[in-house]
Amino acid sequence: MKSISYDTAPGRETHMSIQIRNLTKSFGKLTAVDRLSLDIEKGEIFGLLGPNGAGKTTLLSMLAVLMTPTSGTATVDGNDIVKAPLAVRKCIGMVFQGGSLDNLLTARENLQLHAKLYGVPMEVREQRIAEALELVELTSRANDRAGNFSGGMKRRLEIARALLHRPAVLFLDEPTVGLDPQTREHIWSYIKKLARAEEMTIILTTHYMEEADLLCDRIALIDRGKIVALDTPDGLKRRMGGDRVKLGCAKACSAAMLARIKKFPFVKSVSQEDGQLVLVVNNAPKHLQKLLKIVGDVEEVHVLPASLNEVFLQYTGREIRDESAEADMQAMVSGPGRHR
Amino acid sequence: MSSLEGVLAVWWREVVVYTREKERAISSVVTPLIWLFAFGAGLGASISVAGLNYQSFIFPGILAMNVLFTSMFYGMYVVWDKKLDVLKEILIAPQPRWVAFSGKVLGGLTICAIQATILMAVGALFMGIEITPLSYLSALAGALLFGMGSASLGLFIGAKLNSPDSFSLVMSFVMWPLFLTSGALYPIEHLPAYLQVLVHVNPMAYGVDLVRGALLNAWTYGPLLDAGVLLAFGALFFWLGKSAFEKMNLG
């Protein structure tokens, strides 16, 4: 399998794990993924960040060949998702958003089923199952039924299962959605451990800023099926330019006052929204005093430090958990394509 | 090689899950017993058919009914698997789709075989039906021959449906008509012409005939015609079901 991938992907492209070219998926009138192109390097932890219904899961489903694209294509570890779906399936592991464990089977039986379906050789099967259970600290619960597990344990077991056949690429679809903060941090530490231990490309979707910020080498901000920004977490924050300061002024600001504010070198931009003065400022805590001197009396002051949420807001004009994005997803669920 | 292992893995999963779903297993054996002992014995108190007591006469029909209902519900159960991501986990594996489908059909047949065996034991112990090893095996073969078609039909419907809401429609328009026009509950010789036509085009009638012939040596069509029709029915729906699995789009 490896030799084929090298034949079809010459030169420097061999260290690309995933190459996406103009990938599109439409459900009737709704375009869930819109002519999307993207390269992901081997060994990267790559985040697809966006609100619900942005097209992240659809993108993942196409890469995992659960769905055929409307147009365009992609290669996963050198295998074309349209022309060689079986080869793609062999080299990927997937952790689904919904529960995908057999609740009536024990943890070990769930892993055994997976190993058999993926043709993990009999000689190494039990050993790999033991290792996978060890990694996610479920060895002592191996013979308990998955149905008795907590949400976090189930997710850990699903991660362990996805690793049994040593995939080159691991997809995690919203790996920590619905888990409590403590469990979430637990899962994060497993993902980090994995990325260090195995030379695996990990692609995860999330709508948690914190998760993307903490785990990912690079992040693509996705909105309405398109990539609106692509960079490292720090790079994205730097693009934001700084902290946002919102000042609720007692009186309307005069044009002269705005002009004076704009002259400060640390002020990147100034705008007025609903009687509030919205500024993007480098190192807001340090310069706040100078701003207040010019503006005079204010009723309220908000300082929002640079975060991915702010970046998202700047690029898309909406919050990451925007209502209209939820509505898009509803349209997708009831749409003719029967998207989950 | 690995495909065969895949089929066996899915089959194993289905059987293990069945043995752990106590409610499903118990209800699927209790229902035919109610038919036999409440309906069969009740009506049998006043009538007898073809020289047999009525309860014995319908015994093979109830056996076939159990195969029909068990295997079809079993097949349609994939709708629930679809709702969660359980089915995706199996279908995303590097195996052709026929692997999952065949494993499911085999699983359904195994469940039918277990239940048919329990029913025949009840028949032999409590209903005075004479069952020899040969008649047991041939009745079982007949039941499974029919089961291949009905399990495939159930899986075919399950692959097409998106929600379990339509289960009752399938019961009203497929399962009950198949059962009631199969000759499971009455001999078909004296039926009015229109009903005879319905029976003759019903594949289940040949399943009932094969099982009844094997157990009671009372035939309408004969073993060859029965087996031929059931094989054709099984092959047709096996193919249709497999194709439906291949087309199933999972997001």
Structure description:
The complex is a heterodimer of chains A (340) and B (251). With 340 residues, chain A is of the alpha/beta class. Chain A has 13 helices and 14 strands. In chain A, a hairpin with a 2-residue loop joins strand 1 (16-27) and strand 2 (30-41). The longest helix of chain A has 17 residues, at 181-197. Chain A is elongated and about 80 Å long. A two-stranded antiparallel ribbon of chain B has the order 1-2. The two termini of chain B are 29 Å apart. Chain B has one domain (2-247). By secondary structure, chain B is mainly α. Chain B is built from 11 helices and 2 strands. Classes of the chains: A alpha/beta (340), B mainly alpha (251). Chain A binds chain B through residues 57-58, 61, 64-68, 86-87, 89-90, 94, 96-102, 104-105, 109, 113-114, 116-119, 337-340, and chain B through 2, 5-6, 8-10, 12-13, 16-17, 20-21, 84-86, 88-96, 162, 249-251.
Brief rundown of the structure:
With 340 residues, chain A is of the alpha/beta class.
Tally of helical segments of chain A? 13
- Give the DSSP E fraction of chain A (strand runs of 2 or more residues): 25-35%
- The whole-number mean of residue pLDDT values of chain B reads 92
Strand order of the largest sheet of chain B: 1-2
- Main beta-sheet strand count, sense and barrel state of chain A: 6 strands, mixed
